[in-house]
Amino acid sequence: MEIPLLARQSKLKGIGLLATGDCIHRKWLDHLKESLEGEGIYEHGGMKFVLQTEVQDKNAVHQIIFLPSFSKAEELREKLMRHSSNIDADGRPWLKLNGEEIAEKVLECGGMIGPAHAFTPYFGIFAHFNKLADCYGKYAKNVHFMELGLSADSLMADHISELHRVAFLSNSDSHSPYPVRLAREFNVLEMEDFTFNSFRKSIEREGGKGIKLNCGFFPQHGKYYMTRCKNCPSYFTLEEAVNLNWKCPKCKGQIKKGVVDRIKELSDSEGNPNRAKYIHSFPLAEIIAVAHGIENPSSVRVSRIWQSFIEKFGNEIAVLINASIGDIEKIDGLTAEYVQAFREDNIEHVPGGGGVYGKLLPLGKKAEVSFLKKEQKSLMEF
Ligand code: ZN
């Protein structure tokens, strides 16, 4: 998973700007310096890259950091090194600093910082805190973005009024350089040009620029969407879980609070009419697999159909978002039905929770989660 392969595969996905990940790790930073050209926003083989990393603070909150140059990445690495037992242990180092202390150093380096997968239990800011300032102290006002995570979308997160001024990023960390894993979630940013300053202006919504579209999984697909037992895994309402003292009556396993219920606890707003549109989507190979009832999205049959889409439309995002359903039908009718259903939000899931991903259901099938029926109304309000 190195830059030349990432650059080639990103084009097939339809990505215009890819975040590097891990940019303060010694070996990866050296690889980036060898592979990328430019200043601020870098380039390899026609693909643009922005320097980015994720770190874990001493409260177990994961933080996303964007940096404006290699020299600033070196500088931040120096500043953080003495606050980590081994900054190169892996791509996402553990730091003995809180969010406020890290924010100070990032801002000194001209970077941007915000919470990663903000609502997920264990490592999201809202697993540990109720407000941005509880984490970032006097630098809360300098936090201009938040990453939603797979189990939340804009509609859910905007139930918290404090977040209305913050840009929402729908991103996903990729563990493989291929389009089925790259940019499972992505954003459309409006930028004047490919400079770090324009990137910053877009995130900070300066001069009418900003995020024009978020695209990501149905939050039901995320592995912490519903409150659910980590072991068996049964579903519970928040009230049930509290009454059971977070212990599953069926298997004695631990019940893990879902993102839906965490947002309900923090909710103080009906929503935000100024938020960019959020489209729910899914990697094309996985849509093809579901449409054809094929278990493995990496199978030869799926790959063949995927390839014919790429030959016709150039990249995956063009198929998922832009192409007309009529044109998609000409390649594959079954896939066209599903792409249309995604665009119309007409897809049902066995909802995720307790660390288990949700499961997309074939068209026409409804989720059979017993208590969901009585809860449906309040869930649909999100
Ligand atoms: Zn259980």
Descriptive terms for the model:
382 residues; alpha+beta; TIM Barrel; three-stranded mixed beta sheet; 15% strand; binds zinc ion
Number of helices: 16
Quote the average pLDDT: 93
Strand content: 15-25%
Which structural category do the helix and sheet elements fall into?
alpha+beta
Helix content: 25-40%
Envelope shape: globular
Main β sheet profile = 6 strands, mixed
Distance between the termini: 37 Å
CATH topology of the domain at 3-220: TIM Barrel
Small ligands present: zinc ion
The CATH first-level class of the domain at 3-220 comes to Alpha Beta
Secondary-structure arrangement, i.e. CATH architecture of the domain at 3-220: Alpha-Beta Barrel
How big is the Rg? 21 Å
Oligomer: single chain
Number of strands: 15
Low-confidence region ranges: 371-382
Concise summary:
With 382 residues, the chain is α+β, with helices and mostly antiparallel strands. The chain is 36% helix and 15% strand.
Structure description:
The strands form five sheets. Strands 1, 2, 3, 4, 5 and 6 form a six-stranded mixed sheet that branches. Strands 9-10-13 form a three-stranded mixed sheet, covered by helices on one side. It starts with a helix and ends with a helix. It is an alpha+beta fold and 382 residues long. 36% of the residues lie in helices and 15% in strands. The model is unreliable at 371-382 (pLDDT under 50). The protein has helices spanning 3-13, 26-35, 70-81, 99-108, 125-128, 132-136, 154-157, 196-203, 238-243, 259-266, 284-291, 300-313, 316-322, 325-331, 333-343, 370-380; strands at 17-19, 37-39, 41-44, 47-56, 62-67, 112-115, 145-147, 167-169, 186-189, 211-216, 228-229, 255-256, 277-280, 349-350, 359-360. The protein has a domain at 3-220: TIM Barrel, CATH 3.20.20. It is built from 16 helices and 15 strands. The chain is globular, with a radius of gyration of 21 Å. Helix 11 (284-291) crosses helix 12 (300-313) and helix 14 packs antiparallel against helix 15 (333-343). Zinc ion binds next to loops.
